[in-house]
Amino acid sequence: MLRVSLLGEQVIADDATGAVLTRSPRSVALVAYLVVHAGLAQPRRLIAGLFWPDSTDAQALTNLRRELHQLRQVLGELPSLAVTGRDLCWRDTPASRVDVREFDVARRAALAADDARGALAHAHAALAAYRGELLPGLADDWVLAARAELDRQCVELCDLICRTPSGDPAAALAAARRRIRLRPLEETGYRTLMRLQADAGDRAGAVSTYHRCASVLERELGVVPAEPTRAALRRLLARPGPEVGRAAAPGLVGRSAELARLGEAWRAAAAGRAGVVLVRGDAGVGKTRLVTEFAGLARAEGAVVATGRCFGSAGQLPLAPVAEWLRTPAVQRAAAGLDPVWRAEVERLLPASPPVAGGHAMVDAWQRLRFFEGLARALTAGQRPVLLVLDNAQWCDEETSAFVTFCLGLVPDAPLLVAATLRDGGAETWLTQLRDDGKLTEVPLRPFDADGTARLGEAVAGRPLSESDRTLLHAATGGFPLYVVEALRTNASPPSGRLAGVLRARLEQPGPAAREVAGLAAAAGRDFTLELLTEASDLDADTVVDAVDELWRRRILREVGGGYDFTHDLLRDAAYQQVSPPRRWLLHRRLAQGIELLHAGDPDAVAAQLAEQYARGGRPDRAVEHYRRAAAVAARTFAHAEAIRLLKEALALVRAQPPSGNRDRAELAVLEALAGPLNAHQGYSSPELQRTLEQSLALAESLDSQDSALTALLELWSSQFVQGRTAQAHASAERALSLIAPGTNPALSGSAHFIVAGSSVSLGRPAEGLRHFELGAERTRGASTWPIGTRPDIHGPAWAAHAHWLLGHDDAAVASSDAAIERARAAGHPYSLTIALAYAGITHQLRHDRPALATAVAELRGLCDRYGFAYYREWALVLGGWARGGAAGLAAAQEGVAHLKAEGAFARMPYWLTLVAELSAPEAARATLDAALAAGEARDDRWWLPEVLRLRAAHDADPGPRLRAAAELARAQGSVALLRRCEADLAVAGPS
């Protein structure tokens, strides 16, 4: 049976197996057109004209015939699709299931039902089929018309469910909320939801619904709710008397020049030049107000507008502004049409259900760019220009700034503009690259002059100001809009004090309960809900609801996405300052308990917030637990810098506790969690990573935790080896091997053999190394990863190929290398393939097989560029330079070596320097080979020293002594291949 999904996605699949048959937009749209007109024959000429309006009639009909042929090739003979020489028609048959038809059949049955139970059953079935808008992302006229009609029908069903008694209030509430999403500017939906919430005893939710309604109407239409909606609120608040009005919100005053510059940036972006426009200025100068006005104008022109905010307080998840953008309904509708592979990346940030922990941070970091690409595709999936607002960019987290830069580089010709606000003096390092690339437009915002100050003051006061008041207002406020607005909302006359005093006075205006709730809200520090305030306050629920309503009416609080926030950060700061330190401690603890209770089903979403509240509330044990959870959440979205910050906060709290075994165990757990993000963010050669692993090892040994000690040694080996500390790395490997006992996890024991093998080869013991490679593979057969993060069936044979070659097993070396690549391709894992190709590159170079080396390096370089593998990119530069030769090859090899040194990655440095020497002029070659010898001796990196000595001998007047030394060393190491080279040169040189 065929499954045709047109609502919320565009796909035709086999219903039995789930196999996708086609996602072709044209093919799916053709089927959709016929489905929308099911049962009615559609003339071919009409369809051809609609789908190919720019072609001639004859060409359009030819295109239609070709499309039908391709459709039949994919779908086979489909009974539902009736085709004649004159027209096409879709007929419902048992051979296919179409969500649009299922929706329509259930809708008609609901409207025709004689009893409430039957009507509700059919209505719910129809809504279940309606998973999103018709053909998301398409904007053809016929699609828009059909989409609007289906939306209207869905609203009709929501109304039916809401007005029909059912005994299932949750279903009615869900229908009312869905109606609001479909018709956000219709007050009927809000009134219905308020009634249902009140009937369910959720007075706080009903008041929040009214606040949301009023905010949407003010923002989108510049109007207040109609009398029936206001009357519903009065009934909720038990206010029979005159309505208490909300403080007026003045329109935008002045700023015409700045608004014009924003308009220019928008027109450039809409024309296909993606970029960032930055409004910058001091706090309170009106940056957010200006960008909000600009966003409204863009929305009125048909743009998709999504808003995200950064916060100065801790507790915000990485990429939180990006998550806000992706939750915007218009973005969600367009993103629904993405291929599943990209939707899966979006779900990393917005999981439909709590994600399963797993993965290895050191390796999974390669997926970060694919993750970013998925997010970028989701934001630009529609056919309309997109405006992304980023408020308070001075507090932008590292991952969000990195994503914005990546997104603009990925889709430079997309109709996309990021409009950011930045407080002067805030961090803006991430903007430097955008400025250098010419993608940043800066719009400085200054305080008003005397005339602008007076015009804003009159708009707020609602009356003309006298000349003396105008002069005093500008002198007192300096022309800062926030100061002007808050001062005149505090008093009818111009202020006489500083801004801090004005804000304190503003916060004294509400009643005692509202002031107490304002302090609690300030302690929350970011978006908060009425439900949280009610849970955390010692006031009764009705009092809290009334208090929030008063703060909202006075424009101290504003409604934001179903929750609340202060209208300005400075107001939040002022409210917090008015809470005594002992009281703050109590409020933070209550907020933490409230958040934990309200989010018991999904603590990951609020882990960072919980950690911060518990830390401020004097519960370091609970704070550490949630800091660790928040770090794991951050690592799942590759926000390793944020994971490091969170774990360091946890570490500081643990180390502040009195010494004890429990404290040591807690510290060890945090240090173990910290190693992965440090590795992913800073690399194996990071000194901080090494210190962390050494501390973990010391604690594990003191606690007699064998598995923890073994894991620390495995990871410490990786750090020491990449840094070129070969002897120390081998000592760590042997310590790890000594910890293996009966019952040790096979992955751990196999990893211990692997690291002994790797450092053995580098120490010039290829036979010993090969034996341990084989033991490691044997013990981990069937495992998907080793604790050090790479696949045992790929990394092992890839490296073992070098040992085989050194031992003179040339065919075995090639076979081992090829097997590693074959397994990596079969696994479909880019990082594993990168490792296999990188080690294969060395194998081909050892064999002087330049064609094979060039092929491997070309693919390796592509993977490194695609996924950002810096370490192996340098391998590709050196190996590719050697294969290419000449001046260009030498420059590439030298660049790769320089990058490795800059990264602190000195492993195999004698080998890399030798490749550079082979491309260099004699004098430079001699100096480079001397450096290679010194590096090998200093770092115990001895496997390649026979070759270095052999090549250096060519620059001696008498090469014999050095050649014999090279041969003796190769013989001692058992390096048959290198010994053969030495013996060949000795035969040519003759006796000295």
Summarize this, please?
The protein is an alpha/beta fold and 992 residues long. Helix content is 65%, strand content 6%.
Q: Could you explain the architecture of this structure?
A:
The structure is a single chain. The chain is globular, with a radius of gyration of 34 Å. It contains 48 helices and 14 strands. A hairpin with a 3-residue loop joins strand 5 and strand 6 (87-90). Helix 5 (116-129) packs antiparallel against helix 6 (141-163), helix 34 (706-722) packs antiparallel against helix 35 (726-738) and helix 45 packs antiparallel against helix 46 (945-953). The strands form 4 sheets. A 5-stranded parallel sheet has the order 9-10-11-8-12, with helices on both faces. Strands 3-2-1-7 form a 4-stranded mixed sheet. A 3-stranded antiparallel sheet has the order 4-6-5. Helix content is 65%, strand content 6%. With 992 residues, the protein is of the alpha/beta class.
Biggest sheet strand line-up: 9-10-11-8-12
Give the fraction of residues assigned to helices. 55-70%
Unreliable residue runs: 357-363
Mean pLDDT: 90
Question: Given the helix and strand composition, which structural class is it?
Answer: alpha/beta
Characterize the overall form. Answer: globular
Largest sheet: 5 strands, parallel
Please compute the radius of gyration using only Cα atoms: 34 Å
Number of helices: 48
Tell me the span between the first and last alpha carbons.
Answer: 85 Å
Percentage of residues in DSSP E strands: 5-15%
Number of strands: 14
